[in-house]
Design goal:
Order of helices and strands: HHHHHEEEEEEEEEE
CATH superfamily of the largest domain: Jelly Rolls
Largest sheet: 6 strands, antiparallel
Number of strands: 10
Strand order of the largest sheet: 1-2-3-10-5-8
Number of domains: 2
CATH topology of the largest domain: Jelly Rolls
Length: 206
Amino acid sequence: MQITMARRKHIKDAGCDAMRAQLGATITRLRKAGKLSLGDLSEQSGVAKSMISQIEKNESNPTLATITRLSQALGASVENILSLSPDSTALIQKASRQDIPLIQSEDGLCTLRIIGWIATVEYTQWYDFTAKAGGVLESSAHPDGSIENLSVLEGALEVSIGNEVWRCKAGETLRYRADRPHKITNIGTSTARAAMVNILAHAVKH
C-alpha cells in the first residue's frame, strides 16, 4: 500500500510531537526526582529557566546542545534522556566505565571512581575506592555533621582522624565524622578495595 506525501508528513509530525512530549515528561520527572526547581536546573545546566519550562510543557523544539546540557545537569546521558518514557522503563541512567570520573591521591596509589549520581551529589556521594599497598588518601574536612561510611571489600585499611586511629578489614565497615581532616591508608601488602559513601551534613538527621 502506498503512503501519500501528506500522510507521510502527518506520521512524521505525529512522531515528533510524541518525542517532544516524552522528552518534556522525562525532563520533568528527572528534575523532580532530583528535587530540583526550574531555577536550580537552569543554574546547573546553563539553559534559560523559560526554555526549560517550554520544553517540559512541549512548547519548544530544543537543540541537541540544549538537551546535552540538561542531561549532564540531570546525571543522565542524552541517549537515556531521549529514550526514557514514564511508562516504558524505570531506568534513569546507565553509565559506561569510561563515563565514570576518576580521582587519584597525591601519591598516585589510591583511586576513587565516582559512581554517585550528580543529581544527589549535594546530599550523598559514593565511590569505588582502590588503594595499592602503602597508598594514602588524605581528605579535607566536609561540612559540619557529615558522615563517611567505609566498607572494606578486599584487604585492610586504616582510618585516622587527629589522634584517633581505626583499622578495618574485608567484611567490616567504619562510619566516622568526616567534618574534619581524615586519612585512609592501605596497611596491607596487597591492593585494598572499599565502597565509600559520604552523607553530607544537610542530609544527616540528628
